[in-house]
Structures are given as structure tokens and as C-alpha cells.
Amino acid sequence: MTTTLPGTAREVRLAAIPEGLPRREHFTVATTTLPQPGPGQVLVRNRHFVVFPGLRTLIGTDGDILPLPPLRSGDTLFGPAVGEVVAAPADGLLRTGDAVVHMLGWRDYALVNATDCTPLDDTLPDPVAYLSPGSAAYGALTRLADVREGDIVFVTGAAGAVGSLAGPIARLLGAKRVIGSTSSPEKAERLVSELGYDAVVLRGAGSLAAQLKRAAPEGIDVLLDTVAGEQLVAALGAARQGARFALVGALAGQMSAQRKGDSAPVEIDAFRLVIKGISLRGYSGADHPDVEKEWTGRFGDWLRAGELTFPHTRIAGIDRAPQALQELIEGKHFGAVVVEL
Q1: How far from each other are the two terminal CA atoms of the chain, in whole angstroms?
Q2: CATH T-level topology, domain 8-131+310-340
Q3: Over 60: is that where the pLDDT of 209 sits?
Q4: CA dihedral sign of residues 162, 168, 169, 170
Q5: Domain Enoyl reductase (ER) spans what residues (predicted)?
Q6: What is the pLDDT of residue 1?
Q7: CATH number for the 134-287 domain, one of 3.40.50.720, 2.170.150.70, 3.30.565.10, 3.40.50.300?
Q8: In the chain, pLDDT over 70 holds for what percent of residues?
Q9: How far apart are CA 286 and CA 263, in angstroms?
Q10: Given pLDDT bands bounded at 50, 70 and 90, which one contains residue 262?
Q11: What percent of the chain has pLDDT over 90?
């Protein structure tokens, strides 16, 4: 059956570099001529794409130390997307109708090099789950923090895309007690009632160190940190002997209106690191290429067994995507934020 394609496509572009944090008015939804695939390319109709906080860092920075290219005024945004191949060369590896994941989200049709597409199978019960950033949480907890039976684990930014999976994963890996941090009582209640967190500390509700002391009077063995800043300092104060800290994000710097988003300086007690024998390491998926396949397999098993969920908020329509990014930066959503086309 031949699919009739439209003559135009829509995409979200950066209209202007913001002073401070990006807002809805810094983006535009543009209409462009539908591209046609050339040799080695496929045309994908995107079905879903994920809104991720790293976009804030890519907007207006020089990109010297970033793993992804920076965004300039007029550029189309990008990020993980799942979609369906609607046009492909006859001699290619991909066929019309194949479901794929790729990095050219933020548009309804994407012209992608076939080698940059990963075909989807039924490992995960819902294709949208392929947009989960859970591999970062899983990789950090298994490769760096080495969660063990009986560990007490603290997850910062626990209501975010990574944190909302990190706590339940830590429990499945054997953690005895899982504590999270978040910014609102409503999110805290959901972390406990829906995701099985034992306790939650609230940013802006008094001393984080004091709250963490009450939540974990024995101290913590593992930190999965997505925030840095004062939350990393509080975690260091609660660390037990030989604690393992895995850093997967630095939202305190990324989401600061006073910074560009590519730095998150914090003053830590090096003496305590030495005396307590604390390991402090940053996690990069590129350093652990085996994690993605391992994670996807376990994620699928856990989803089907009902032992894990994929917490996410769905936003309908590409026109609402720029607002969704602003709301993500403002901390208004729970779990990952996925735009449904």
C-alpha cells in the first residue's frame, strides 16, 4: 500500500537566544517543505519525542565540553524520538512501516540517515518506553554505585525523568531504603504512593541536611545525583563509610537563570571525602556501551512483570512542545515529558 504524504512538515526552531532561562517566546513552530530521502536516508513520521532538560544547556553555550552540538538562533531542536518509516530506498536495510528510534525529534517528519536509526522490536511493551532515560539511572547504579543488598540510597531530583526510575531500580537491585528529593509536597506524595520511595526531602522546606538526617539517621550508602548544588553537599554530610556517589546530572546549574547551563560549581568538603572513603564519579553512557542493551532487556522484563513503570507526562501536539520545555524547566511535570504527535 502506498502512503500519501503531505507536501509540508512542521518543526520547532530556536527563534532567539534567551537572556537567562528559555521560555515559550524563544521558539517558533515553522512550516517547511517535506524533505525527500536521498541515498542512505529514510523519511520518518515521528509519533513521539521527549523533552529533555539538556536542551537548556545546548541553547546559547559554546559547546566545547558538551556531548551534543549547541543550538543557535534559527536551528531546529532535536532529541530522542520514536516514529515510523514512511519512505525508504528499495535497497536499504529499513522498510516502509518499520518502527525506529532516532535523535531528530521536535518535528513531525524527520529525514534521517538510516544508520542513525535503531529499529524497534517488542522488547518493551510500549514503543514510547524507548524514550525513557532509565539507562542512565540503571548504568550509574550498576556500574558506578554498585547498589548492594541492604543499601540506603538517596536520589536527588527524584520526580524527574531519571530520578523517577532511579528509586524503583535501586529497590529492585536490593536497596533496603530509598529516599528522594523533590520540590513540592504533591510530587513527594506521588514518589511515596506510586513509586515506593520510603521518604522524601523537600527543597525549600528548611535545611536539606536536617531533613536527610531525619530520613536516613544511619546515613546513606549510595547517592544517585541529578541536581548537584546544595543537595550534593547535604548528601556528603550524610555519607557512610565507603559511600558511592554517582552523578548523572547537574540541574542546579543547568536550570539557573544566572548561568548558561554548562556549569554547576559547588563547594564540597574534600577532607570528608578522604576520611569517609567516598567515591564520587560522573556517569556517561558513552563510557559504558554495554549498558543500553542490558537495561532495555531488564526494563522490558520489569515492565511486563509489573515491577516497574515508566513515569511520564504526555503533551499533545507539536504546538505545545515549546511550552512543555518551559514547564519542564519550571519543574511542573512528573517523570519524563513526552510530546505526542
Answers
A1: 22
A2: Quinone Oxidoreductase; Chain A, domain 1 (3.90.180)
A3: yes
A4: positive
A5: 20-339
A6: 45
A7: 3.40.50.720
A8: 98
A9: 20
A10: confident
A11: 87
The CB density around residue 313, as the number of other CB atoms within 10 Å, is 17
Whether the model clears a pTM of 0.85, i.e. scores above it, the answer is yes
**The three cell numbers locating residue 306:** 509489573
Do 139 and 285 meet the contact criterion of CB atoms below 8 Å apart?
yes
Q: Are 313 and 132 in contact (CB under 8 A)?
A: no
Report whether 193 contacts 311 (CB < 8 A): no
Convert the pLDDT of each residue in 15-24 to its tens digit.
999 988 999 9
Distance CA 178, CA 52 (A): 24
